[in-house]
Amino acid sequence: WLNGRNGLLVPARADTFDVPHRSFREYMTARVLVESGYRTALNEEGQDWEDIIGYLVMRSPSAWREVFRFAAGISRNKRKVVEVLGQLLADGLSPWHAQTGLFLAAEVARDLGPASFYSIPKWAGVYRRLEKRLIHLMRDTSGDDYPNDTLNDPTASPATVPSTRLEAGLFLDSLGWTPSDLHQVIPVSDP
After folding, report:
1. For residues 163 and 175, is the Cβ–Cβ distance under 8 A?
2. Considering only CA atoms, which of 61, 68, 50 is closest in space to residue 111?
3. What angle do CA 183, 185, 190 make, to 5 degrees?
């Protein structure tokens, strides 16, 4: 019956089936991580999944990105999920790791819903750091005084490529961000 009636499981050997759909494998991995708490015989230190997922994501983003997004969505412990987002936004990361972590944190924040971050001050701090970094990436700026922050030198290496700036802007839009200086960009006359 399993052989001929579905596409989720395909025979791998005589007594073993495989899951050919990557998203389904990632979802099942996330369920196992969340439900088992990542407690296995190999995990002698007793770490929870939230303690190790940031490392796994940064080490191999293509393998763990969607697993983390699924796990974050189904986890009941949102406090730990926000702590992982804080790890992804840590200072001192290489530029590639910083951007990878930033975009993944933005995806998870979008998945969880920005409003969920405002109820707890520590969570709001992580969200503000995420938002600030996306703004700086989108505007290719540095400093803490948006909208009067300092524009980066476009001739400096490495310059932020337009597609990266666009992606940061699209994340900000999906998170519901509205620039405080919007009235200066788009003139609106009084009715």
Report:
1. no
2. 68
3. 35
- DSSP states of 49-89 as a string? HHHHHHHHHHH-HHHHHHHHHHHHHH-S-HHHHHHHHHHHT
Is residue 127 within 8 A of residue 118, CB to CB? The reply is yes
| Token reading at 191 | 């009715």
Residue 26 CA to residue 65 CA, distance in Å, equals 9
**Tens of pLDDT, residues 29-69:** 899 888 876 655 455 566 677 778 888 888 888 889 999 99
Please give the structure tokens belonging to residue 56. 């796994």
pLDDT digits (tens, 9 = 90+) for 120-136: 888 899 999 999 899 88
The residue written with tokens 């969340």 in the block is: 34
Q: CA distances (Å), 191 to each of 25, 64, 118, 136, 188, in order?
A: 55, 51, 33, 34, 9
pTM strictly above 0.90: no
**C-alpha to C-alpha distance for 130 and 167, rounded to whole angstroms:** 14
* Structure-token match 């190999």, residue found: 42
Q: Residue 173: which H helix or E strand, with range? A: helix 162-174
Token code pair at residue 155: 């001739």
